[in-house]
TrEMBL record:
It comes from the Eukaryota. It comes from Theobroma cacao (Cacao). Keywords: Kinase, Leucine-rich repeat, Membrane, Repeat, Transferase, Transmembrane. The keyword Mitochondrion does not apply. The keyword Transferase applies. This is Leucine-rich repeat transmembrane protein kinase.
Length: 206
């Protein structure tokens, strides 16, 4: 089946149906299905794409839990899952996705908390968790992501909590923490974010 095909880009069409499991037996490095009408869940077979670097599924009607097997994608750098109907918790196997640079899961129906294992994603530059269904508080482990340039978290369920440590975010340009049930004082470390161009914090900070 098309043994030399590396990229599938069907962005912004009117496609229906599901992702063919047979794609998992190909040699794909890039999949983009952004902006279609696709349904179903992500086939576990995609976890066999050992050279996949980009998985863009945003703005569709995908649903179901994320397959834990996706944690076996050693080269994945971009995973865009926002604006779908995904449910369940983020699989613990995602702790192994250490090549990630851009991870987006906003506008879904996930459950559970933002996991501490995100501290393993030390290459991450962009993290979008807006209206994802996940609960707070924002884990302090997020402070390990020193390469972040964009951090957008909003509409968290669950308990209140303090602003996460910001001291290491020296490259951060965009910081949005809207409706995250934050409490406490604004930290002095905000002054150290010299690269910051946009700051939005809508919570209960004193």
């Amino acid at each position: 089946m098309l043994p030399f095909l590396k990229e599938i880009d069907l962005t912004r069409n009117y496609l229906n149906g599901a992702i063919p499991p047979q794609w998992g037996s190909m040699q794909l490095t890039h999949i983009s299905l952004l902006g279609n009408r696709l349904t179903g869940s992500i086939p576990e077979e995609l976890a066999s794409l050992s050279n996949l670097t980009s998985l863009v599924l945003e703005h569709n009607n995908f649903a179901g839990n994320l397959p834990p097997a996706l944690g076996n994608l050693p080269k994945i750098e971009r995973m865009f899952l926002n604006s779908n109907n995904f449910t369940g918790e983020l699989p613990s196997t995602f702790a192994r996705l250490t090549a990630l640079t851009d991870f987006r899961i906003g506008d879904n129906n996930f459950t559970g908390k933002i996991p501490d294992f995100i501290q393993n994603w030390v290459q991450l530059k962009t993290l979008y968790i807006q209206a994802s269904g996940l609960s707070g508080p924002i884990p302090s482990a997020i402070g390990a992501l020193q390469n972040l340039t964009k951090l957008v978290i909003s509409d968290l369920n669950g308990a209140e909590g303090p602003l996460p440590p910001l001291d290491n975010f020296t490259k951060l340009e965009i910081l949005v923490l809207r409706s995250c049930k934050l409490i406490g004082d604004l930290p002095n470390s905000l002054r150290e974010l010299t690269a910051l161009k946009k700051l939005l914090v809508y919570s209960f900070l004193d």
